[in-house]
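Z., the sequence and structure:
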Amino acid sequence: MNTYSKIRVNDRDITYWVTGRGEQTLLLLHTLRTQIEYTERIVPLLADQYHIIVPDLPGFGRSSKELNHPYNANLFVETIGELIKKLDQKDITIAGESIGGTIALCLAAQMPDRISKVFAFNPHDTMGSLISGPVGRIVSYVGRYTEEPFKRDIPALFKFILKAGFANKNNLTDEFVEKLITVPTQDHRFALAMKSLMQEAPSWTQLADNMYPKIPSSIPTQVIYGDKDWSPKYAYKQNERRLPKHVRFQTLKNTGHFSFLDNPSASARIIQAAQSE
């Protein structure tokens, strides 16, 4: 069983798991709206090959939820970068999904001396948009003006939003949804932190525009999209244009936005295959 540790980073508490039996360090970064447990299905598939670190991102899960700074993209990238330094990690592989993927790509540009490989699954980095289609319009509008979608008293709405990100709806369990609702909302500031994050949504594409072109060719980098990812259709093309030419693109079949849960085996195989390259 994984145990939770805590460390002080940039004046906030960051909770994280450490697990795995390998020598190479792998940092796994979860998505928007989730937490450490998002990686529960993929961690066992990678544990023999990697020493794995999984943090709760700022404001999520069991990490603290200070309200003294906007929850913009810079906050997340700076905090995880400082976490890597505090844990004295070098030559690490980073695999992140959604905002975790964007953080991974930005860190490759910012601290290439500490990062050896990057995998960005369904990166959230396009025009400030979270989700395409009707679900996206609901989330973007409601989330910017009220914290209601993130309160524990309307789990049906929360599950409805998450399900839109799965190709295989049965891969979203009630047990997992319950964790996402009950763990972070033990701190009353969670809803306000998430409202701030929604209001700062455009900061993700702004940071990506600035940092992605700076990823050095010395860092093998892959961007992986689920063929049923809920991001806007132009996201893939935009990243083909702004990411350096050495970045490789792949598509996971029958996979939605939450590939670590929706298709953990295929996601793990991509990471494992690169270890021997």
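The chain has a mean pLDDT of 89. The chain is about 40% helix and 20% strand.

Let me know what you think.
H.
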